User: Which sequence fits this backbone?
């Protein structure tokens, strides 16, 4: 494809070959289908909020977005994102009243408290707001008003400011571990249209290579970390998605995507790593903080984009949730092929690849064993994105073949599976395992 003068040159061939290879491997392996809030700023989480539940996805999908970009949007080698560590400013003395006020509340006010180890009290309800002081876990607050996920509060000594709602007991009781304690600020420019990206998510499914999503809209758990092109286009989601290699503080070469919502003919593009800088201030098991930006606008055939964003994400809580054991349960049928499928399903959810191999038909096993270890990990990551509670219908058995349906729900997503089993060497094996999800 011919680019306009001055456009960034991308190696579409390498990218497409890589994506097609993975898609072919996964389709041959499972023939599976593609899968179908905002937390507020601050602090290192001392406690992990509810555990991360990977959003089940369709298994036909490869680890990259479900649809490949047209040749307009091409990949290039990455530069790793680096989370900046935000240094909390020392408490800023407010002029205390001569007498400490009592923590009283009117009918239009209510009480809350800080639930994380350290939370910044800001002068304005935004990430760039000046830090007034740092609040510790258990600090009591009177809430005056709420504004876009921020709470206007007063402390016992009379000081006032704003804190992120999700950093307090007012936060939602159930929140994806991928998005706990996110503090994000930045913009994504698409053809001179400037979009704010205040939402941040981190997935620690692979602790050494976490995936970060920065978006202009809150995302449901089933879209983290693999934001699907269909979902992004339908819901007009604009986002920057990238993986990082923590010990090297650089961009991962596997995940570097920009989503254009409804503002382009293509749903997403792989951004060129050599035109993106990543400054990671901190990237450990407690916090991932940094800044990512394009060094110059990226030009495609009919599209020019750039982005510049800072992020501070709670790795500790996300890691705790990602590593929490999955409680798999089944209901419905319990016939012979279904019993084998249940064991296969448990092996997937446990991430036990060696055990999982016992349930593949020979042809599929040959395909997956031909992959390198990194490719197999990516396939397993996708397979694990399915519901923990499964209802299985009675199979239709004809000779040495059995087909049946399964369903489950995870968060706002409803999942349906279509499974085909065959008898091979006297044992039931999985031939196809297709899953789809729909977010309500």
Assistant:
């Amino acid at each position: 494809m011919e680019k306009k003068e001055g456009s960034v040159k991308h190696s579409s061939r390498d990218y497409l070959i890589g994506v097609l290879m993975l898609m072919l491997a996964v389709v041959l392996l499972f023939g599976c289908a593609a899968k179908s809030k905002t937390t507020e700023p601050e602090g290192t989480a001392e406690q992990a909020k509810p555990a991360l539940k990977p959003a089940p996805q369709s298994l036909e999908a490869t680890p990259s977005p479900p649809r490949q970009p047209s040749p307009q949007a091409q990949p290039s080698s990455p530069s790793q994102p680096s989370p900046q560590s935000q240094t909390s400013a020392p408490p800023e003395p407010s002029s205390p009243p001569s007498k400490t006020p009592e923590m009283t509340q009117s009918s239009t006010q209510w009480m809350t408290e800080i639930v994380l180890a350290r939370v910044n009290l800001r002068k304005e309800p935004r990430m760039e707001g000046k830090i007034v002081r740092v609040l510790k876990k258990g600090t009591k607050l009177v809430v005056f008003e709420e504004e876009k996920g921020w709470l206007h509060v007063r402390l016992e000594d009379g000081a006032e400011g704003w804190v992120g709602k999700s950093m307090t007991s007012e936060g939602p009781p159930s929140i994806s571990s991928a998005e706990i304690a996110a503090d994000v600020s930045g913009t994504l420019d698409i053809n001179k249209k400037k979009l704010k990206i205040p939402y941040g998510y981190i997935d620690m499914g692979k602790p050494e290579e976490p995936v970060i999503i920065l978006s202009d809209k809150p995302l449901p758990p089933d879209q983290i970390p693999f934001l699907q092109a269909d979902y992004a286009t339908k819901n007009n989601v604009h986002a920057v998605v990238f993986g990082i290699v923590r010990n090297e503080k650089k961009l991962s070469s596997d995940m570097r995507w920009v989503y254009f919502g409804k503002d382009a003919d293509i749903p997403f593009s792989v951004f060129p790593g050599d035109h993106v800088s990543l400054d990671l201030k901190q990237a450990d098991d407690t916090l991932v903080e940094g800044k990512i930006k394009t060094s110059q606008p990226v030009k495609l055939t009919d599209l020019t984009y750039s982005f510049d964003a800072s992020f501070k994400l709670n790795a500790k809580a996300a890691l705790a949730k990602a590593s929490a054991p999955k409680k798999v349960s089944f209901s419905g049928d319990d016939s012979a092929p279904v019993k084998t499928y249940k064991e296969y399903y448990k092996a997937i959810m446990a991430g036990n690849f060696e055990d999982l191999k016992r349930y593949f038909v020979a042809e599929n096993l040959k395909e997956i064993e031909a992959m390198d270890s990194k490719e197999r990990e990516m396939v397993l990551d996708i397979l694990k994105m399915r519901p923990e509670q499964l209802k299985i219908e009675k199979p239709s058995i004809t000779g040495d073949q059995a087909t049946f349906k399964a369903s489950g729900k995870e968060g706002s997503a409803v999942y349906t599976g279509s499974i085909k089993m065959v008898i091979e060497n006297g044992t039931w094996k999985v031939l196809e395992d297709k899953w789809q999800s729909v977010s309500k």
